[in-house]
Amino acid sequence: MKRDECQKLIDSYVDWLRQGLCVEEVGEACELTTPFLDRHNDHLQVYAVRHNGNIVLSDDGYILSDLRTSGLEVDTPKRKMVLDSVLNGLGVRVENNQLIVEASAKNLGQRLHSLVQAMLAVNDMFVMAQPRVASFFFEDVRAFLDSHDIRYTARVKLAGKSGYDHGVDFLIPKSKSRPERILQAISAPKKENTFAYLWTLSDTRAARTGGSDQEAEAYAFLNDQEQAVGGDIIEALKAYRVTPAVWSQRSQYVAGLAG
Q: Do the two domains 3-128 and 132-258 of this chain adopt the same fold?
């Protein structure tokens, strides 16, 4: 592309920004509505107030509150590390659950752009990236087991009767009163994920026990933080002698896992 064509691209982008921006006075603050959309297709809003000669820009707590409403708390070391890595690169900090930057008259535009970038990045990294959400639910289940002093080995490979190896999230060893227990953390309880776990159990139970008298107990921790678990999933698990451990009711399963 020629130089004048490139300049037209810049002009077009700036025009889109300018046309998409609007501002209102809200108490002591200015409420700036941007053309950038969040995961709900709502326009991101930034609030500006004067403080000690500078201008403080914030999201008024929207981004982290929205994640919390969706069932995702940024309250573990791993999650905080991910959050900090995103914010530090943009010069944004968290204060009272708000994303905040300070600006002067000279760098106001740049700092505003950094805050909007941070709002979009945090929203995307924590909510839209399903593999990351899955690892977070695994972490939640592990923290739950640790909090109740339940013995386990994490991320175990089990050999199946078919000759294939299968990965399971947690394995609780046999005790005097209970057989071995296999646990899987299913962050998105759908048919595909559930059936994959049932195949694992079908293939590994016979290979490990050699008989139904010593069959391993099986649990599926089902993430219902964002939506209810379907009845068809529950029934399928029960049909294969798997305890459907719905996350919101996890306290009910402590005795069976700790024995």
A: no
Residues of the chain with pLDDT under 70: 1-3, 6, 9-10, 13, 71, 125-134, 206, 209-213
Q: Token match 């175990």: residue? A: 156
The confidence score (pLDDT) of residue 74 equals: 81
| Residue 127, pLDDT score | 54
Domain definitions of the chain by residue range: 3-128, 132-258
Rounded to 10 degrees, the C-alpha dihedral 39/43/48/54 comes to 70
User: Which fold would CATH assign to domain 3-128?
Assistant: Yope Regulator; Chain: A, (3.30.1460)
Place of tokens 């004067």: 50
30 within 8 A of 47, measured Cβ to Cβ: yes
CATH topology of domain 132-258: Trna Endonuclease; Chain: A, domain 1 (3.40.1350)
Neighbour tally for 50: CB within 10 Å? 11
Q: Are strands 29-37 and 153-159 parallel, antiparallel or unpaired?
A: unpaired
Burial 88-103 (b: 16+ CB within 10 A, else e): eebebebeeebbbbeb
- Which pair of structure tokens corresponds to residue 253? 């399963």
